[in-house]
Specification:
CATH topology: TIM Barrel
Number of strands: 13
CATH architecture: Alpha-Beta Barrel
Number of domains: 1
Largest sheet: 10 strands, mixed
Low-confidence stretches: none
Distance between the termini: 35 Å
Structural class: alpha/beta
Number of helices: 10
Shape: globular
Helix content: 25-40%
Strand order of the largest sheet: 10-9-8-7-6-5-4-11-12-13
CATH class: Alpha Beta
Mean pLDDT: 92
């Protein structure tokens, strides 16, 4: 796929596609100007609250007897997106359990979305291999939630059995605050051994839902963990919550240009189950209603205004 140079508000986005991965760079014609997007660069879309695992720390409070988002609502949201600028992360719950997941992903492709992914728990890959094989052609990447040691090898083996192991398109999601330093290092070593071309996403611990009933472990040795990642060339991504929780360490190893700490600055959350939009999937202080005439530009502007971020009139 060729590179693209796109305007978003008062700046430009240079999209570069390498090794099945999308890299976006923000460029401005005016030095030191405050960048003000009109369209979100990333949208998290919740498709379902259904999940069969029942993790005690689940901040979405997903359960096996919960409900799915309506297909009509999901399509309304997708149709409003700018397919060139916006990257979409479909999540839940466990998205593989949504009865219309294949149709949803096909519809996204038809709308022109060339950068979309889904997040599933590691057990679902073994539980629904046929569904995994069916959705893979319609995705740019998959996120796999890992909850302990030994799971990455099983995921890789299962994906190989159905000819779906594409390491550069896999991102293993890990919540560091659930583990001791020793166990976290073993999980990272397993990624390096089993699927070295895959990414790792560090997620900050959220205390919403069932998450409020679990006391997370703040990793005092996070600097050591990051040093291991750098030394072993593990490809690491971090969500905004993790960056805020470990900002001192992040500042030591990264440029301010490579991370965001403000909710709703370049991204937003859309919940198609409860039918609302917000700054993020865990910061729900502001909630706008999804209606039949839903407009992503207007909704994103509302999210930014609530977060006291500069917006266009």
């Amino acid at each position: 796929m060729e590179n693209k140079f796109l305007k978003n508000g008062n700046y430009y986005i240079l999209l570069d596609y390498q090794d099945n991965k999308r890299v976006a760079l923000r460029l401005s014609e005016t030095p030191d100007v405050e960048l003000t997007p009109e369209h979100p660069e990333l949208v998290d879309i919740k498709l379902t609250d259904v999940c069969h695992i029942g993790c005690t720390w689940c901040y979405q409070d997903s359960r096996s007897d919960s409900v799915h988002g309506k297909l009509e609502t999901i399509k309304t949201v997708i149709k409003s997106l700018n397919p060139e600028i916006t990257e979409v992360a479909f999540g839940g719950g466990d998205v593989l359990q949504h009865p219309d997941i294949v149709e949803i992903l096909k519809f996204s492709r038809e709308h022109g979305l060339n950068s979309s992914n889904i997040t599933m728990n590691w057990q679902s890959i073994m539980r629904y291999p046929d569904k995994v094989k069916e959705v893979m052609p319609h995705l740019d990447a998959i996120g796999v939630s890992i909850t302990g040691r030994g799971q990455i090898g099983k995921v890789v083996e299962s994906l190989r059995e159905i000819n779906c192991h594409i390491p550069s398109r896999i991102c293993f999601h890990v919540i560091p605050d659930l583990y001791s330093k020793e166990l976290l290092l073993k999980i990272l070593a397993e990624v390096k051994e089993e699927s070295p071309e895959s990414d790792v996403l560090f997620l900050g611990y959220k205390t919403n839902g069932r998450g409020k009933n679990v006391t997370p472990v703040h990793v005092e040795s996070m600097r050591e963990i990051i040093e291991y990642i750098i030394k072993n060339k593990v490809s690491l991504q971090c969500d905004t919550k993790f960056v805020k929780d470990y900002i001192d360490v992040v500042k030591e190893v990264s440029s301010k240009l490579t991370y965001d700490i403000k909710e709703g600055e370049y991204s937003m959350n859309i919940d198609c189950v409860e039918e609302f939009y917000s700054q993020s999937s865990y910061n729900l202080a502001f909630q706008g209603k999804i209606t039949e005439d839903f407009d992503i530009t207007r909704a994103f502007s509302e999210v930014r205004k609530y977060g006291n971020l500069k917006t266009f009139n």
